[in-house]
Amino acid sequence: EQEVENLSGLSPNPEKDIFVVRENRTTCLMAEFAAKFIVPYDVWASNYVDLLTEQADIPLARGAEMKGKCGTNESELEISWLEQAYTLKLFFLKEGHNTSRGQEAFWRLSRIQFTYDTSERTYFKDAVNPRKHTAISHRLSALVTPAGKSYECQAQQTISLVSTDHQKSVQLLLSEVRIQPFDITADFVFSEEHKCPVDQREQLEETLPLILGLILGLVIVITLCVYHIHHKLTANQVQIPRDRSQYKHMG
């Protein structure tokens, strides 16, 4: 028995969507992200002879319909909105590869498919030859994550898709991503996160000045302590006169 739930209303960010797929009353796929598509399309110029290229910015709408499929090594998430004028399909694959530590398993986003209808008037204005088009990814290997972990990336990522509309390039903008399509151990709860390289770098850039500041402060304190101890020791030493004429005053 499979259940699908759109929990986007629980997100404090109105641009962020939350989707859950459950099988046998247990969560098998969870996805949270904000998504927007930038889609080029043709319109007639004012002379009705030449073509101009416009751009549609299509956000993933809240309240979207969804489907999902969980498997041992393959999982899918399908999201449709505006009466199926737009459909996003995400395909996930889990596989293993050999490393110096032996066989290791990981999962990745292996394919993206986006279907859009240029006759839909919310985002497309006066498109030439309006009809449905499909944009797909080629040889995609994104969101690579060790098996048993969730993928997390707050930074915006751009993935290019090639459309059947004269091979135009459609851009998918993803941000605030948290996804786990396999091996969820607790219902509605992500496993330990695997941060994307951009987030790791930004976190390092944020903490590095603090670490360097602490090190610099520690060096200053140690220097002052050494100077104080050295000054105290030299002050307590008996000063032996170098002028031999002063020896007569000693004793």
TrEMBL record:
Record keywords: Cell membrane, Cell projection, Cytoplasmic vesicle, Endosome, Glycoprotein, Membrane, Signal, Synapse, Transmembrane, Transmembrane helix
Protein name, UniProt field: Lysosome-associated membrane glycoprotein 5
Keyword Glycosyltransferase in record: no
PROSITE patterns according to UniProt: LAMP_1
Chain ranges of the Lysosome-associated membrane glycoprotein 2-like luminal domain: 14-184
GO biological process: establishment of protein localization to organelle
Locations listed in the record: Cell projection, Dendrite; Cell projection, Growth cone membrane; Cytoplasmic vesicle, Secretory vesicle, Synaptic vesicle membrane; Early endosome membrane
Family from the record: Belongs to the LAMP family.
An annotated GO cellular component: endoplasmic reticulum-Golgi intermediate compartment membrane
Pfam families: Lamp2-like_luminal
Primary localization class, coarse: other
Top-level taxonomy: Eukaryota, Metazoa, Chordata, Craniata, Vertebrata
Protein's job: Plays a role in short-term synaptic plasticity in a subset of GABAergic neurons in the brain.
Keyword match Cell membrane: yes
